[in-house]
Amino acid sequence: MHYAALASGSKGNCHALSGGGRTLLIDAGISLLQIRQRLAALGRSADDIQALALTHEHSDHIGALGVILRRTNWSILATRETRRAAEHAQNVQIPANRWIELEAGHALDWEGWRLLPFALPHDAADPVAFRLEVDGWACAVVTDLGHPTALVADHLQELDLLVLEANHDIDMLREGTYPPPLKARILSRVGHLSNAAMAELLARVCSPRLKALVLAHLSESNNHPDLARFAAEEVLRGTTVALHLAHQRQPFALSAN
């Protein structure tokens, strides 16, 4: 199995999981052209993409949905409420024959992979994160949550790879230039995960099995990579977990095995 962060941040998010000649995208907040180019830069082919799984309907996660529907035959995996909200947000219609319905808390067997969407506290219609298991390997992609719930922690146990939000430093956000309503939204319990909250959750789910941690969805305005890295390293001290940071513009890949 292979993982790639094609884009991560407030300007667009897209993650790719590949194995057995197939690729699943999680979110498509960058253009289809960028998806193809960034996969190619990593030595991967967009021809292997078979499906797109949506976490929620915010534009930085579904911006390319309309073009994808017109120019590809990819299946679209989404909950019923996310499908409805995404169609409304992008003024598109996801054909019934291309939609694979997801339900939070219910695992889906897809092409030999086990995909489990689970609920998140975020200000969207039906936001989910994903845990994926295949051939004894397990990973999770978890971003866009306001606080770490017990349910989230339960689904992040015994992973090989964890992609986890570290959106903001609380002091940077409070002292920054964002308008007060936006600051309040981000800091709310349905906003985004701070470095401190990320570290709290990481401490609850880090196990001897964990091989790699990817910090994702870092704010370019309200965080600094060194601050996010330091918060995670405090938890990971004494472990062999490889720490990576996902970027908005620079894709990177790693082998999950």
- Count of helical segments? 9
Number of domains: 1
Quick one: overall form?
A: globular
- Contiguous low-pLDDT stretches (5 residues minimum) are none
CATH architecture descriptor text: 4-Layer Sandwich
The CATH class assignment is Alpha Beta
What is the string of SSEs from the N terminus onward? EEEHEHHEHEEEEEHEHHHEHEE
Q: What's the rounded overall pLDDT mean?
A: 97
CATH-defined superfamily: Ribonuclease Z/Hydroxyacylglutathione hydrolase-like
Distance between the termini: 6 Å
Q: Strand tally, please?
A: 14
Report strand order across the widest sheet: 6-5-4-3-2-1-14
Percent in helix:
25-40%
CA radius of gyration: 17 Å
Describe the structure in your own words.
The chain is an alpha/beta fold and 257 residues long. The chain is 29% helix and 28% strand. It has one domain: Ribonuclease Z/Hydroxyacylglutathione hydrolase-like (Metallo-beta-lactamase, Chain A), CATH 3.60.15. The chain has nine helices and 14 strands. Helix 8 (195-205) packs parallel to helix 9 (225-236). The radius of gyration is 17 Å and the shape is globular.
